[in-house]
Specification:
alpha/beta; five-stranded parallel β-sheet; about 35% helix; globular; binds adenosine-2'-5'-diphosphate
Length: about 325
């Protein structure tokens, strides 16, 4: 069993290595690849040094599984080349998510969308994964009609560039390679991904499309994506309109009994989820669970998670585990 991590030097790639180690996935060989500038450099995994290679060299190694987090361009260029050699590619970028031949998977929700012939599997966007961890079990119970989502996304979602920009600006220095078109320090930027002619951004469109692909649904979804000066952890305000009537205590019970979800909701004690407490945790935290009194079957939630873990690395490693266990590779 050979596992490759493509983009192993990046923020998500590094977290993937950490999660692979924690989960004690059993494999014989680890292949690590990154861009030209990193070739030959060493990285540590389980106290052993591994030498970074090019993506082309990694293809030659014919890994059983390749987990990609090196941007959409790299995935578009190389994922099929791995797949043609029998590798299962788990891709963290947006490159393949819209391809209807490619399953888009949150294992707790739709692992069964993966079949043995799917050699490219897409990891959804971080905001979609975390929001759906809370919304999917409620959809199953009460059928969601409409979602209104506002995100409060940390800079780690933009990789090292985002982290560096915030760190520079906090020191009073202007970043020479900024991730955002404006200062992020002491600011809030209502802009994630490119704008389309509709006035929405790419990150907003992802929430709409990915929700319905994963749930096999036709839910009306609208979103506003906002970047905030937080290093790690995405938060989302989620307003849900259901088809069916619900009981608030039952909603809390459903969420409390959902694996991977932790209810953190005791307003009288100031207990609600915040990015600072989600840091380096795999669970998705849900709080501020309350009725939306402006409509008949409405609910408001506040959802927080570590975007680099469940929003990216952990979800990808869970998919790898599913493939190993179910396809006996
Ligand atoms: P490198 O460190 O060599 O640039 P982040 O999103 O945190 O910036 O990480 C991006 C990851 O994708 C890094 O591991 C980076 O490697 C890798 N990467 C970027 N461009 C390429 C490319 N053209 N081919 C392979 N890996 C790439």
């Amino acid at each position: 069993m050979k596992i490759a991590v493509i983009g192993a030097t990046g923020v998500v790639g590094q977290k993937m290595l950490q999660v692979l180690e924690e989960q004690n996935l059993s494999f014989d060989e680890l292949i690590v690849a990154a861009s030209e500038k990193s070739i030959g450099k060493k990285i540590l995994f389980k106290d052993k040094e591994y030498t970074l290679m090019s993506v082309e060299q990694a293809i030659e190694e014919c890994p059983n599984i390749a987990i990609f987090s090196a941007g959409a361009g790299t995935s578009l260029k190389y994922a099929k080349k791995f797949a043609e050699r029998g590798t299962y590619v788990i891709d963290n970028s947006s490159a393949w998510r819209k391809d209807m031949e490619v399953p888009l998977v949150v294992p707790e929700i739709n692992a069964s969308d993966i079949n043995i012939n799917n050699h490219i599997i897409a990891n959804p966007n971080c905001t979609t994964i975390c929001m759906l961890m809370a919304v999917a079990p409620l959809h199953k119970r009460y059928k969601v009609k409409r979602l209104v989502i506002s995100t409060y996304q940390s800079v780690s979602g933009s990789g090292q560039k985002g982290l560096d920009q915030l760190a520079c600006e906090q020191r009073g220095v202007t970043s020479d390679n900024p991730a955002y078109p404006h200062q992020i320090h002491e600011n809030v930027i209502p802009h994630g991904g490119d704008f389309s002619e509709t006035g929405y951004t790419a990150e907003e469109d992802k929430l709409v499309f990915e929700t319905n692909k994963i749930l096999h649904s036709d839910i009306a979804v609208t979103a506003t994506v906002v970047r905030v000066p937080v290093y790690g952890g995405h938060s989302e305000s989620v307003n849900i309109e259901f088809e069916q009537q619900f009981d608030l205590d039952e909603v809390k019970e459903v969420l409390s009994n959902t694996p991977g979800v932790k209810v953190y909701d005791n307003p009288s004690e100031n207990i609600y989820p915040m990015p600072i407490m989600a840091y380096d945790k795999d669970e998705v935290f849900v709080g501020r669970i309350r009725r939306d009194f402006s409509i008949e079957k409405g609910l408001n939630l506040w959802v927080v998670s570590d975007n680099i873990r469940k929003g990216a690395a952990t979800n990808a490693v869970q998919i790898a585990k599913y493939i190993i266990e179910n396809f006996k590779i």
